[in-house]
Amino acid sequence: MLTMAIETLVAITGAELVHGDPGAMVNGLAIDSRRIEPGNAFVAFVGEHSDAHEFLEDAISFGARALVVSHPVERLPAALEQARLREVAVIRVPDPLRAIQQLATYHRSRLFCPVIGITGSTGKTTTKDFITSVLSQSARVVATEGNHNNELGVPLTVLEAGADTDVLVVEMGMRGEGQIAELAEICRPTAGLVTNIGVGHIELLGSQEAIARAKGELVRAIDENGTVFLNGDDAFSDILAQDAVATVVRYGLGEDCEIRAEEIELDDQSCAEFVLVTPENRQQVTLKVPGRHNVYNALAAAAVGLRLGMDVELVTRGLAAARTGDMRMQSFVTASGIHAINDAYNANPTSMRAAIEMLAGLSSADRRIAVLGDMAELGSLAELAHFRIGEAVARLDIQHLVTIGERAKRIADGARAEGMDDERIRPCATAEEASEVLDDLLEPGDAVLVKASRVMGLESVVEGIVTPRV
């Protein structure tokens, strides 16, 4: 946790101390007034949809010791008066985001724990969850919350770590070249893991090669004393490895992978069991998260844990305990007996295919229904990518397909072209229309997968499955 004198905070950020004792200490930082703990510095961050300057007085009442603002103080008379009465420091910075990044960079220089950076086209967050579960078996871990992996989320994660942190795990996203390099300058990872190189963001970067260069910024950020973990079965791993000066550890299914899985089997809930093979031994692993693709996420976590010196029994215990976050392969049975899989947080061709394969593997279900929406940021690949997902649905043991959105119509087209009966395909324009279809379609004993890119907002469809319309 960030702990420093206000005068140090002012010096690091190049700020103006408007009011307050420069020798007073702040403990922790918050950008949400509802999450303030006494002694925190509250940064009035200005986002796309809100301005935290509106909550300065709330922050004071909740115990903030310092307010970091960017608006001219003349615009904040009530908050300034309240700060003077409560002896709360007021600090004005040119740019709140930049101030948070500067503080995180300084704070990182005072940490001595290993820092694991994670990036990739798919599986970043789930891999982070697996790694956190494994490392938490024997260490105090601070990790990225949810999907806070951007220019704001990464520094906030760093600021959560403290002297008692054994390992810091940082998920790193990107939307263009140079962004991961900037995040790496803040968190200075001692190890980096790239899950894979897919076609997500191809609309922004133009090609998989460009995506590999952008993701490879994490590889190049790890010095010769660190470790780079690569998916040995990914086509771009050899290219990424060429940029590494650190030790490279590969995980996957291939014989050349140092950490690999053998004898993979799926139970009737599509959860994987496999033998974890390391240079030293073989260990049986049972996962509680559905989907064969999660074997790769588990192998990544095992590679990290073993590299940090963990005993393999603790590693396998952590893998078995791993769970995913909200809207990421979130599996549950509704009161009406429907097995719902909420994977509506994000989607690209790789993760979409993995999800429908998982659905098809649910042998315990009477029927399997795929509810699939648009995949975003695919550029010129969008038409073909959606069409091929439809072809895959038709080839798998999936009884009904419901599509949502304009791009997803091509999923329906692909399924028809591959021979799926038209009465089993229901294209919908909106989430509301899809919910009406599902109200009539779903029966107890069915399994239903809901998946699309985040912009589609399909959590409303999941809510409709949980609470059908009367």
Helices and strands, with pairings:
Layout: E1 3-5, H1 6-13, E2 16-19, E3 25-27, E4 29-30, E5 41-43, H2 56-61, E6 66-69, H3 77-86, E7 89-92, H4 96-108, E8 115-119, H5 124-135, E9 141-143, H6 153-160, E10 167-171, H7 179-187, E11 191-194, H8 202-205, H9 208-221, E12 227-231, H10 237-242, E13 247-252, E14 259-266, E15 271-277, E16 282-290, H11 294-307, H12 312-321, E17 330-333, E18 339-343, H13 349-360, E19 368-373, H14 382-395, E20 400-404, H15 409-417, E21 425-428, H16 431-441, E22 447-451, H17 459-466
Parallel strand pairs: 4-5, 5-6, 6-7, 8-10, 8-11, 9-10, 11-12, 12-13, 13-14, 18-22, 19-20, 19-22, 20-21
Antiparallel strand pairs: 1-3, 2-7, 14-15, 15-16, 17-18
Look at the structure and give the mean pLDDT: 92
How would you classify the quaternary structure? single chain
* Domain count: 3
Number of strands: 22
Question: CATH homologous superfamily of the largest domain?
Answer: Mur-like, catalytic domain
CATH architecture title of the largest domain: 3-Layer(aba) Sandwich
Which overall shape is indicated by the principal axes computed on the Cα atoms?
Answer: globular
**CATH topology-level name of the largest domain:** UDP-N-acetylmuramoyl-L-alanine:D-glutamate ligase
Q: Which ranges are low-confidence, i.e. pLDDT below 50, for 5 or more consecutive residues?
A: none
Reported for the largest beta sheet, the result is: 9 strands, mixed
Structure description:
It is a single chain. The protein is an alpha/beta fold and 470 residues long. The chain has three domains: 92 residues, Udp-n-acetylmuramoylalanyl-d-glutamate--2,6- Diaminopimelate Ligase, Chain: A, domain 1 (3-Layer(aba) Sandwich); 211 residues, 3-Layer(aba) Sandwich (UDP-N-acetylmuramoyl-L-alanine:D-glutamate ligase), CATH 3.40.1190.10; 137 residues, Protein-Tyrosine Phosphatase, Chain A, CATH 3.90.190.20. It has 17 helices and 22 strands. It has a nine-stranded mixed β-sheet with strand order 9-10-8-11-12-13-14-15-16, with helices on both faces. A six-stranded mixed β-sheet has the order 17-18-22-19-20-21, with helices on both faces. Strand 12, helix 10 and strand 13 form a beta-alpha-beta unit. Helix 4 crosses helix 6, helix 5 packs across helix 11 and helix 11 packs antiparallel against helix 12. The chain is globular, with a radius of gyration of 24 Å.
